[in-house]
Write a structure and sequence with these properties.
34% helix; eleven-stranded mixed sheet
């Protein structure tokens, strides 16, 4: 090749590179990101009720968005708090420390809520709370830092932990519905006074103002006749009222609460100026798609069906409103699920399915006897909580017994008990390199978890006699999607597995900020 030809080739390559860089620089950045978590959303239900959906809600998202149909969490077990914390931080409990809705405080040996904080009083609630137990930054935190505090970050949810963990540390405010009074409330962690736009909304539209006249009935007549479930036929339309001391708790576990989320979200957009300038803002919402009152699916089939229809309607309302405010390309929607199912255990015994009860209180007693036979009678087990065993560290130190030896001995005994599938030690999880243990390790945090973690066999009930806590072990997964829609996102259906820790870096890249500080996963695209 002559020097002349080489020169022309280099100029052509340089021009191509410059054009590509210019196109990337001018790529549309959304004015508003609406990050939606739908508690307990399931793919099988989502797809089954498709004939009943409108064109502007779930169908619009599924047909016009980039849909990852095989999503999962990179840790187990999962509950609402650990899921939402993982979504907002882009990492697992191993780093962000939110291992669940509750855990045991090792100093007091009492359960604490994941957002409990006696330093910060509530506004229109008795709950004292903050997100400070979450030890890493969130997407909202990074957005605030990247814009010098100019970006607006709001979180709206039925539940306290969902609101605070999705909002993060630096948000403008996190709002949830109080269980006692039924008003939209917040924490003094974010603001000393409740904003006027929240107060005005409470005066007329809070659940407290309408609960007495509220009843849940099928949204459409067809809801009472079309039935997806196996044992179909003969279902009468349901009818629920909300009364008594726990009426707001019950209301928040019904499909009706989703309308409150949409209305408050629209009121927030209208009142705060969110999305109205060139600085990208963030609005985090939580909807509910779980069984009514934690019932078995067989006991609330028509309610669940109606729940998905109402979610479709609320998403349609929300997108129609943002279309009017910002246009179809001004908002990036990201929708996913908490990825668990909070339902009562099935009756395994009736159908002769292998089951049993693993009593953690008795396990602790036997373990004390076993360790006492080795090192002398004493209280080596301090307490148990859920499927975690906490050893007495001070006693072990006094007796000059290493934690590694004590946990190894305990592991030997517990692993031989009936109903035990696996036993993990804290040291084992801290140093684990085994891919098969990765999900368990990702759900572990040394400050929140026990020294011994017992995994019961599927179908077995883990019972603590002292606290009467019980939980049925299950290894089945809940299929759910990740949907990304708007702001120029090309429609595509992707069947390759995708984990939820990749959502935060995907959003961060789309709005050109740094991902949360413990997020090591790559963007989805």
């Amino acid at each position: 090749m002559t020097n002349k030809h080489l020169y022309i080739t280099l100029l052509a390559l340089l021009g191509f590179t410059t054009d590509a860089a210019a196109q990337d620089t001018t790529r549309t950045v959304p004015r508003l990101v609406i990050n939606i978590t739908i508690d307990q959303l399931r793919s099988d239900y989502l797809e089954a009720f498709t004939p009943l959906y409108s064109e502007g809600g779930l169908k619009r998202l599924m047909n016009g968005g980039r849909v990852f149909v095989n999503a999962s969490y990179p840790f187990a077990p999962v509950d609402r708090a650990s899921a939402i914390a993982a979504l907002s931080t882009g990492t697992t409990p191993y780093y962000n420390s939110i291992v669940g809705n509750q855990w045991l405080n090792r100093e007091t040996l009492r359960p604490v809520g994941c957002v409990d904080d006696s330093r910060f009083a509530g506004l229109l609630t008795h709950e004292m709370t903050s997100p400070d137990a979450m030890l890493t930054s969130t997407l909202g935190d990074e957005l605030k830092m990247a814009t010098g505090g100019k970006a607006l970050v709001y979180a709206i949810a039925p539940y306290r932990e969902a609101a605070l963990l999705s909002a993060g540390h630096a948000a403008d405010i996190a709002l949830w519905i109080d269980n006692v009074y039924g008003d939209w409330c917040t924490s003094t962690y974010y603001t000393k006074l409740l904003p006027a736009w929240v107060s005005s909304y409470n005066e007329t539209k809070a659940p407290a103002r309408k609960i007495g006249n509220t009843q849940w009935e099928p949204l459409y007549d067809v809801t009472g006749t079309y039935n997806y479930y196996l044992n179909s036929g003969g279902y009468k339309p349901f009818h629920h009222k909300f009364t008594g001391n726990y009426r707001f708790n019950s209301y928040k576990e019904s499909a009706l609460v989703n309308a409150d989320i949409t209305e408050m979200a629209c009121h927030c957009i209208n009142s705060t100026g969110i999305g109205n300038d060139m600085v990208t803002d963030l609005l985090c919402l939580t909807y509910y798609a779980g069984p009514f009152g934690k019932q078995r699916v067989t006991d609330c089939q028509m309610e669940l069906q109606d729940t998905y229809l109402r979610i479709d309607r609320e998403l349609s309302r929300l997108m129609a409103y943002t279309d009017r405010c910002f246009g179809t390309d001004g908002v990036l929607f990201v929708i996913t699920s908490t990825g668990y199912s909070d339902v009562e255990a099935a009756d395994y015994t009736t159908f002769r399915i292998p089951t049993g009860t693993l009593n953690m209180t008795r396990t602790a007693y036997l373990l004390n006897m076993y360790l006492g036979g080795i090192w002398g009678h004493d209280a080596y087990v301090e307490t148990t909580y859920q499927n975690h065993i906490f050893l007495n560290h001070k006693l072990l130190e006094t007796k000059k017994i290493s934690l590694g030896e004590a946990t190894s001995r305990a592991q030997e005994l517990v692993s031989m008990m009936q109903g035990v599938r696996n036993v993990y030690t804290s040291l084992q999880l801290l140093t684990a390199q085994n891919p098969q243990m990765e999900k368990i390790r990702n759900a572990f945090h040394p400050q929140r978890c026990g020294d011994i973690i017992v995994e019961a066999a599927p179908g077995w009930n883990v019972l603590n006699e002292e606290t009467q806590q019980s939980q049925v072990s299950t290894a089945s997964s809940i299929l759910f999607p990740i949907i990304i829609y708007g702001a120029g996102t090309e429609p595509e259906r992707i069947t390759a597995p995708a984990t939820t820790d990749r959502i935060a870096p995907t959003i961060a890249r789309s709005i050109r900020i740094r991902a949360p500080n413990a997020c090591y996963s790559e963007p989805l695209f």
